[in-house]
């Protein structure tokens, strides 16, 4: 009888751990990498540690399926697992898998020790997954820090290159200021409502508490989160960090952390019913689209060009945040997923082509790539067309759904700014395609054969990009259901 009672009492605890199973899996494999790393010879460690990291990422994807069978709250209502959090868990774990696949060849070519690299990628994913399911502001802050500390270190992983160290230091210093803004916003929210639980804050606001402290808190938290997604005017770190960081890391930090932070923004702005969000979001969206696209026009370095492109795409995505909740949340989720797969694929191509020391990253270097490596050029073309928003790619429906939601919410001015900026953005993406197919090569730039890991990552990225452009219905339907869960 006592044994039966004890088992009954342990069931809720087991459910709590199942609801954070992907985070547990990623942490265990990350620790396994750190333990195994000193025992291996440095020359042979790349593939072994990469294989452990890849197995950890794939196991985390499987764990997310298991997590999806156990909806509910966990750990004293600090974590909630629902269709919304599961969606972003899939985005983060799939991106992590793709980045590890693209890193095998890169780590060997750059002669970088692999242990800390793969461990930090998995530990960063822990924070990103936790951000999507946390419903308590202090836990969200901790999750952001777990993710940020990993990416600060990863940005400076090309230790022999001064520009990489500069990127890491700049990212760390500016990121620390942004974190302080977010934490100060959390403190003000606690002072105004007496709680850091999103549900309790929501009830407080709906009951009529619209004090000046709450407005100040929302603004400060938006500044902190706006830095993480590289939204203007909090974008100044982006070009330098993207240029200096290793290319696979840029593919990682421009997708997975952004998706996780957008999940937090959706919770803070919509689930919490944050007042005063409309003007904040509209101004940031308009500035991000305009500054990102105009600055990208004059870039000759492909990594800096895509850095400004990511600022512009943050602006497109923020348009959905200005919409009514029921109309804005599904397009925002769909856009986050579409952008993740096409951008991580684009940076996979760049990391392969850049070669040792990342010497070939200018637009002129891509001249004639269509003849030297037709497969690599065709793959990059698909990702660039998706970034433009050409039909049969995920980028087309992503922009279409966002702008449609904005029209339905009577945000016509924001839609006009977005459409005009999309036309501007098409120029610099097409400029890369013209270089690859219509320009003669400047010199004899070697293009290495595509390895199995990189080929698999590129094939999956292309498959996801085309799938979201041809059959977007199921993902959008799931996102709509997730929005209903979030608002409920």
Round the mean pLDDT to the nearest integer and report it.
Answer: 89
The spatial strand order of the largest sheet comes to: 1-2
Number of strands: 2
Which structural class is indicated by helix and strand composition?
A: mainly alpha
Question: Mind telling me the C-alpha Rg?
Answer: 22 Å
Q: How far from one another are the termini?
A: 39 Å
Q: What percentage of the residues does DSSP assign to strands (E)?
A: under 5%
How many domains?
A: 1
Number of helices: 21
Largest sheet: 2 strands, antiparallel
Low-confidence stretches: 4-9
Order of helices and strands: HHHEEHHHHHHHHHHHHHHHHHH
Helix content: over 70%
Shape: globular
Written description of the protein model:
With 488 residues, this protein is mainly alpha-helical. It has one domain (12-487). 77% of the residues lie in helices and 1% in strands. The chain has 21 helices and 2 strands. The chain has helices at 2-18, 21-36, 45-67, 83-110, 115-133, 137-155, 162-193, 198-206, 212-228, 238-244, 247-253, 256-271, 277-296, 302-321, 325-354, 369-372, 374-388, 394-408, 412-438, 452-470, 473-487, and strands at 72-74, 79-81. Strands 1-2 form a two-stranded antiparallel sheet. The longest helix is centred in the middle third of the chain and has 32 residues, at 162-193. The protein is globular and about 70 Å long. Mean pLDDT is 89; it is low at 4-9.
